[in-house]
Amino acid sequence: MITINQYLDDILSDFKDYVNSGVELCDLKDVHFDAGRVPDYSNIHVQQLYLLRYAYAYSFEYKRMYHSLIRRMKPDDRIAVTSIGCGSMIDYWALAQSVPQNCRIRYRGIDIIDWAYLIESRPQDDVGFCHAEVVDTFCRAPRLTADAYIFPKSISEFSKDDIESICISLAEKTPTQKKVYFLFSLRTDDRSMERDMIRTNQLFHAMIDNGFISEDDPNRYMILSKELQGRKIKDVDSDFRHPWDVVSFLSTDLKSCCATYVEHGEYCKADCEDRLKRWPILSCQQVRWQLFEFTKEDKL
Questions:
Q1: Do 282 and 218 touch, CB atoms closer than 8 A?
Q2: What is residue 118's three-state secondary structure?
Q3: Per-residue pLDDT of the chain (300 residues; tens, 9 = 90+)
Q4: Taking burial as the number of CB atoms within 10 A of a residue's CB, which of 54, 77, 90, 284 is the most buried?
Q5: Is 183 helix (H, G, I), strand (E, B) or coil?
Q6: Which of 64, 160, 162 is nearest to 110 (CA)?
């Protein structure tokens, strides 16, 4: 299976071809999440920059999340996961690194964006990507058929109405198994995390309304130890090496590739340089997630 570093190097090659082709880079300035902003993922070049900046750290975070799931669930030879707002399916990569060697994965990813650079599946796995409206697709399914449902950095991107629709659906769905797990990747600044956890609380209680019970606390979350939080990802997990070429290009070269800068020697707006030279995330600091285990009690 491809490594995350190989995956990023392939994206970087395509991205360099684009930004060095004499184009203005105004759209790329909007690849950030300041003040709750969501980038325009329908633009493939926005996808490229987003993945170069965030896929390294997010894949590490998802791997930690799945490790916590596997420790709790203890699957034997197969596991079924549905990813809600899956993006380019880097959480599938993390899952494949986390399961026991003989465990086959049935993975279904749903996303409203037709993402490029989807992670290729292992030969033994059953992997599908559904390009569709996420909430409608999820709500139309009559049953909870997966062992686990993950929201990989996506819980914040649903509207209030979307969350209410998902909650209504969860409260009515018939499960196909007695245990179901939910995983949520949370934003780490306090205000954003609070908003994310309001939504996960709603989904938690929707499952309770469906007759499930849980010993998990929807007001608690998981983090890495203080010792790990201060370390580089590459020093914690041998599946990652420092992405030298990505770091060098994004932090140094990208800001001078804009056609306006090349022609005039200056930027068209004051924030161009700051927005374009942002580094990828390389440390373990921004890792925060929730794991809920629900059990369905038999009716007497």
A1: no
A2: coil
A3: 999 999 999 999 999 999 999 999 999 998 888 767 788 999 999 999 999 999 999 999 999 999 999 999 999 899 999 999 999 999 999 999 999 989 999 999 999 999 999 999 999 999 999 999 999 999 998 899 999 999 999 999 999 999 999 999 998 888 888 899 999 999 988 889 999 999 999 999 999 998 899 999 999 999 998 888 889 999 999 999 999 999 999 999 999 998 888 888 888 888 888 889 999 999 998 899 999 999 987 654
A4: 90
A5: strand
A6: 162
Place of tokens 């590459």: 234
Transcribe 74-108 into DSSP letters.
Answer: ---SEEEEEEET-TT-HHHHHHHHHS-TT-EEEEE
The two structure tokens encoding residue 52: 């170069």
Question: Which residue has 């790329």 as its token pair?
Answer: 28
Q: How far apart are CA 300 and CA 288, in angstroms?
A: 39
Residue with tokens 């709500």: 139
DSSP 8-class letter at 238: T
The token pair at 235 is 């020093």
pTM as predicted: 0.94
Length of the chain measured in residues: 300
Pairing of strands 179-185, 222-223: unpaired
Distance (Å, rounded) from C-alpha 33 to C-alpha 154? 12
Which tokens is 57 given?
A: 């750290």
For residue 170, give the amino acid letter. Answer: L
Q: What is the CA radius of gyration of the chain?
A: 20
Contact 84, 134 (CB under 8 A): yes
| SS percent in the chain: helix, strand, coil, step 5 | 45, 15, 35
